[in-house]
Structures are given as C-alpha cells and as structure tokens.
Amino acid sequence: MEPTVRIPSATPSHVRVPPELEGLRRLAYNLYWTWHPKARGLFARISSAGWARSHSPMPILTGMVDWAGLLDNPDFMAEAYRVIGDFDRYMANGADHWFHRRHARELKGPIAYFCAEYGLHETLGIYSGGLGVLAGDHMKAASDMALPLVGVGLLYRNGYFRQTIDADGHQEHRYPDYDLSRLPITRALGREGDPLTVTVELPGRDVKVDVWLVQVGRVPVLLLDTDNPVNDPADRPITNILYVRGREMRLHQELILGVGGVRALRALGIDPAAWHLNEGHSAFLLAERARELVADGASLDDAFANVSRNSVFTIHTPVSAGNERFDTGLVRQIAGPLLDGDGRANTGGVPVERVLEIGRGADGDPNQFDMTAFSLRLTNGANGVSRLHAHTANGTWQGIAPHGILPITNGVHPPTWAGGPVRELFERYLDADLDDLDASTSATRWWERIDRIPATELWEAHVRQKRELAVFARGRLRTQFARHGEAPRTLQDLGEALDPKVLTIGFARRFATYKRAGMIFTDTGRLARLLSNADRPVQLVFAGKAHPADRPGQAVIQEIFGRTRSPEFRGKVFILEDYDMREARFLVAGVDVWLNNPRRPLEASGTSGMKAAMNGVVNLSVLDGWWDEGYTGDNGWAIGGREPLTDEPAQDWADAMDLYRILESETVPDFYDRDGGGVPGRWVERMRRSIATALWQFSTTRMLHEYTEQLYLPAAGIEVDRTVEAHPS
Ligand SMILES: *Cc1c(COP(=O)(O)O)cnc(C)c1O
Fold first, then answer.
1. Is residue 647's pLDDT more than 50?
2. What is the pLDDT of residue 646?
3. Which of 176, 429, 438, 689 is the most exposed place for a label (fewest CB within 10 A)?
4. CA of 129 to the centre of ligand 1 (A)
C-alpha cells in the first residue's frame, strides 16, 4: 500500500499565479499550511493586509497581488522556493516514514475514516467543536505519520452557526454562506476525468451528490454536497447545515454521508481495508455495504458478518441520551426503499426491518433506531475516548457491544496547537521536531528534557503568548462592546483589558449544563475578593457556543454575560464571542490556567486541556475524561476526588468549595511568588511538568499508534507483531 491515497482533482482556474510560482497553488490547496508556520509566513509576505484579514491563502491568491514586485524580490523568491521545496518533499517522502515501513506494506487498501464534521481550520467552517477538531487532528497526524487514510465527510455550505451575544446576554445565531471559490477545496475527478457526482436514491427521486476534495497534507478528505442545481430545490439544502435540527433533514444528511460516502469511494476505485466510523452519524455506511454484498449474491447473514469484520467504531458520549436516534417509522419510510432495493437502482437488498432490529437501543424500545447500538453490533472493535469513558461506556452498552469497548484516549496535534514562542523554544533547546514525534527514540524523547529550557525563557515565551491573547481578545471585545452601543470611553478602556501581568484563568468549551461553566460563581462574595485583591489580582475569560436547540446551555451564557457586566466583576470577567479554532488557539496558548469542571463522569475526554498543557498552561480540572489519567500530582490541580456524592447539589457545592480552596491556597500564591528576576519558580516547574506529561501521551501520534495497532490492523486482518517494539520511543 502506498503511503498516500491519491485522488485526482480539477485544477481551479480562478486562482492565477505566475508560472514561476506555480508551487504556491499546490501549497494553497493543501491544508499543510495550517500547521507549518513558514508556509503561513510566505502567504503573509505576499499580502500582510490580506493575511491579517483572512488568515487563509485563497482570498490572497484570488485578490490583487503585485506579482511583478515579488518575482523581482530575490529574498522572497528564495523563501518561496524553500517553503515549496519543503512541501514537495513532505508530499513525496511518506514511504521513508517509520510508521509506513512498519505497517503500511501489509495493508491491501487504505483506512476509510467517516465523520460528520472536520475541524481543520477556522476558515473551513465544517465543524462545531470537539468531535470535529479531533477528526481534523486525526487527519493531520495521519498525514505526518504517512498512514494511508482517506476521510469522508459533508460539505456544509452554511456550516455551523456564528455566535454573537446581544446586550441582554442572549446568544444569536448567524449561518454564513461560504463562497466555495475562496475555500481550499477542489472537485474530485471520477475515472473518466469528469467532476465526480454520485447518486443516492431517496423515496421518489434520485439525489445527486457532488464530491469535493480537501487535501490535508498527504491525506485526502472527500466532502459530499447535495447543493447541485439538478436536484430538487427541496433536496439541495440537505448538506447545508451542520447538526441541522429537524430530525427528518438530519436523517437525510446521515444517509448521504453513509451511503453517498461508500459510493464516492467506489466511484474512485478505492477499496478500503478497514472502515472507521468516528461516532454513529455515518452508520448507514454499514447498511450500504451489506446491501452491496447482497446485490452481489451474498446471504444477508454473510453480508453483515463481512461488513462487521473490517469495521471499527469510536463512541464519544458517556450517556445513552447523547447518542443519535431516529423514530423507526422515519427510517422505514426514508431509508427503506434504498436499502431494500425498490427495483430502480438496486438488485437485491437489505430488509429495513433487519436494519431496525440491529439498531435497537439499550432500552429495547422497538420504536427507536439507535445509531450507536447499530454501529456497535456491526463492528469488529470499538473504543471510548479516555480510560474512564471506556469504562463508563462498557457499562452503558453492556449486552449490546459484541466486543469490549477499548480505551483509546484522544490526543491533539502538537504543531496545530503549540504557540509560536513555545514551539521555538522546543526547537532551540531540545532540538524538537514537532511534526514527527515518531522520529524520537527512547534516547531522544525531547519533551522529557524540558528542564533544559531555562525558567526565564520559558516564562518569557509564555508571557509573549499571553500578550498575543490580550491583543486578540481586545479586538473581539471591542467589536462586541461597540455593537452593544457602549461609550467610546469604555471602548478605549478595553485597550487595557486582560492585562498580561494578571493571573488569567480560561474556560472555553461548548456551553452544556453538565460542564457547569457558572460553578466558579457559586459564592460570588468569595470570588469577588479573590479577583479584586490589589496585590494579587485574577481575571477570568470565558468562551463557547451553546447548541441552537440547547436553551439551558444558552441560559448559562446569559448568566456569565451578566457577570461580565455586573459592578463587582466588570473588567475582571470577560466572555469572548464565536469560539472557533482561531480563538481556541489564542486561549489555550495564552492563559495561565485552564479550568474544567464538568460533572464527573460526563466529559468523555475533553481535548482543549491537552492543547493547553502542551503550551505550559496549567490544568485545574475535575478528574474527568483525560484528566483522570493525565493528572500526575505535580502537573496541575485536581478538583474533588473520584468518589461521587449521592446528590447533584451536594456534589456541585463540594466541587466549588474545593475549587476555591485550590485557587486561594495554591494557584494564586504560586503565581505571584516571584524570584529576583520576576519569574515564578514553582509555577514554571508546573508548566514544565504539564508539557512533559502531555506532549507525547496526549498527542495524536500516540493516539494513532493505538488506533492502528488495536483497531485498524486487526480489522484489516493483519496480525500485529507484539514482539517488535510497538512505539519507537
Ligand atoms: C479543542 C476544541 C474543542 C474541544 O474542546 P473540549 O475541551 O473537548 O471541550 C471545541 N471547540 C474548539 C474550537 C476547539 O478548538
């Protein structure tokens, strides 16, 4: 198996670059630039104003560029050839990669990875939060490791909503309308060289699905799109909105993803050796593959057994209520003809009643089709996304999963999330190659030698990242305050907001009530004293969206917004709008403390704390999700313990009191205890422990080793040789 799956695609004619700089087009149409600072720097040199406005190459290359000036600038040209050369070598060299040498040769086909959302970059708005960002980081790491993988998802032309908060604290929703010509996507070409379109039969009509390609380094991701003028106007918006609310529309979407995704791969001549369902949204791919086998003459039982053998599934929520379910009547009506074969496109078929039976949930309700139960029963292996979550999930799905649910803890992609100043230190003092953690051997696990970075330098790099956050946040706050009609004086004061000298605590994630964003306000008097201490002040920054249908989550936003405008907390508590990957990068790199206080064990993993830890930001968290296994005693703080109290209010109260205790007796004193040079010694020690304990352990590199050896290779029928060192390190 080649280290990369190559998918031909149309050369976009609206992007014009001089022939000498043709490489820029290759670079712009590959999200490689999102995790390679030098590539971003090159586009910023072409137009610094354009970059500052769009932070994406496409608007720059499609706008006005002084090409003659650049071609005459030897300095620029040398840098351009260096960056393009690095990129071309990256794309060509997969076969040398350790990972490829070790595993990929035995594979007969690539791994197909299906997910409803991909968080690859903020300018490609086809993600909402944690699930998507995890999938995006998975693609980038697979690229770095030369794992032959192809992603499948949907192209949401209106994406997920952009959030504003009105002057009364209500969350407002706006759906953008993306201009596809400014996105780094191209049309995939079919075997005849034409733009590829596949067909999915829905009751009474055929829906045409256009196939787009976004190239993520070496990894192609196919994005399916029903917004084609040949479709009925009622079908065009099927793929427009991520996590669309209407159940019927959602079911249509998931049929397109699962069934359309399989058909797109087939049309491209791709025969995956293993199929990975990241969450149950794509579960219809299992039914479609069974249908194919039946159409080829297999018995129904053999078809399902064959599909199960090479499919694997990742579950992401601890409680069964969080899983995708549909009324069986709806599935029967909408998916029935397609699966059964109604004589139009198919021969043979899979009776929908059988599909519904396989998808019966843990509660046995015969009127619900449960995508998680369906996926668990039809896969060869499954995993939860942290040790604690796998344990919880095994309890929830007991009797349904034919196999145990393995723990494969999430990770994050270090080059995407490490701030520039900290990354430079890793490279300068530790000779780190952030793009290839596999290249490190047991003798060169550079993150363990973190002590070689002088405390002063690590602290200064951190303070630089804090300043970058302050500048970014002031801009966002100014926009918000101006929209609310605040006075010019107030807007001017924002220039001083989020003083980098002040201990800064960040809390950013989806606003769901179990995450208890308001917990720190349990005793407002006590918190006000903590924040307003003149010698040792503290400030809080919040950010996050609540799902448009989640009213209680929106009420939490309103509560926090109210605090930011209250006399006691004004200027000390802030809420930033429109949490996205860009805002997340500034926050996880630029606060001092990353606060996380969900109600245990409801947070399956959480990944933002991992991003923070790699930057030396110290975690202060309930022992839930990843932190239950990530906390070592010296790399941050644990709120509460592992023994649950019987009732929720008592648990909430106890956790809040423990949070105050830690802040008052450890966090604040340690932060403000400075040596002669102004460096907080104990603090920097915790920063070092954070980096050292997270960088490998909570990286997507470690995660992909586990996916490959525990799920992908067994699904592909390849025995993993345990006598060979599993990890290079
Ligand atoms: C990392 C990330 C998330 C997920 O963070 P959690 O800690 O899992 O809640 C959500 N949204 C964005 C934009 C992210 O970057």
1. yes
2. 83
3. 176
4. 5
- Distance (angstroms) between ligand 1 centre and the Cα of 417 equals 11
Distance CA 547, CA 241 (A): 13
580 lines ligand 1 (CB under 6 A): yes
| Side chain identity at residue 593, one-letter code | V
Q: Could you tell me the two tokens for 76?
A: 């620029």
Protein residue with its CA nearest to atom 5 in ligand 1? 608
What is residue 594's three-state secondary structure? strand
pLDDT at 13: 83
Confidence (pTM): 0.97
**Among the listed residues 278, 220, 516, the one whose alpha carbon sits nearest the alpha carbon of residue 410:** 278
Residue 16: strand, helix, or coil: coil
Q: Which atom of ligand 1 is nearest to the CA of 508?
A: 9
41, 137, 187, 724 from 37: Cα distances, Å:
6, 16, 27, 35
The 10 Å CB-count burial string (b at 16+, else e) for 229-252 is eebeeebbbbbbbbbbeeeeebbb
Digit-coded pLDDT (tens) for 660-713:
999 999 999 999 999 999 999 999 999 999 999 999 999 999 999 999 999 999
Q: Whose CA is nearest to atom 8 of ligand 1?
A: 606
Residue with CA at minimum distance from ligand 1 atom 1? 608
Give the model confidence (pLDDT) of 418-476 as tens digits: 999 999 999 999 999 898 888 776 667 999 999 999 999 999 999 999 999 999 999 99
> What are the tokens at 647?
């009732």
CA-nearest of 587, 593, 588 to 575 is 587
Give CA–CA dist 180/169, Å, rounded.
33
Quick one: tokens of 238? 């099927």
For residue 101, how far is its CA from the centre of ligand 1 (angstroms)?
33
Percent of the chain with pLDDT over 70: 97
Distance CA 659, CA 553 (A): 22
CA of 609 to the centre of ligand 1 (A): 9
Query: What string of H, E and C letters represents the secondary structure of 654-721?
Result: HHHHHHHHHHHHHHHHHHHCCCCCCCCHHHHHHHHHHHHHHCCCCEHHHHHHHHHHHHHHHHCCCCCC
Judge whether 119 and 413 are in contact, CB under 8 Å: no
Q: Is the CB of 416 under 6 A from ligand 1?
A: no
Task: Answer whether 123 contacts ligand 1 (Cβ < 6 A).
Answer: no
pLDDT bucket at 319, cuts 50 / 70 / 90: confident
Report the pLDDT value the prediction gives residue 645, as an integer from 0 to 100. 87
Distance 197 CA to ligand 1 centre (A): 33
Q: What separation in Å is there between the alpha carbon of 580 and the centre of ligand 1?
A: 8
User: What's the 128 CA to ligand 1 centre distance in angstroms?
Assistant: 9
pLDDT tens-digit map of 151-207: 999 999 999 999 999 999 999 999 999 999 999 999 999 989 999 999 999 999 999
Residues 376 and 283: their CA atoms lie apart, in Å, by 10
Q: Average pLDDT of the chain?
A: 94
Atom of ligand 1 nearest to the CA of 583: 13
| Ligand 1 centre distance from Cα of residue 475 (Å) | 21
- pLDDT tens for residues 466-509? 999 999 999 999 999 999 999 999 999 999 999 999 999 999 99
pLDDT, position 443: 66
Q: Using the predicted structure, report yes or no on whether residue 406 has a pLDDT greater than 90.
A: yes
**Domains along the chain with CATH numbers:** 19-92 (no CATH), 98-165+172-407 (3.40.50.2000), 414-698 (3.40.50.2000)
Question: Probe ligand 1: pick from 509, 577, 617, 622, max atoms within 8 Å of CB?
Answer: 509
Residue nearest to atom 9 of ligand 1 (CA): 509
* Ligand 1 binding pocket includes 133 (Cβ within 6 Å): yes
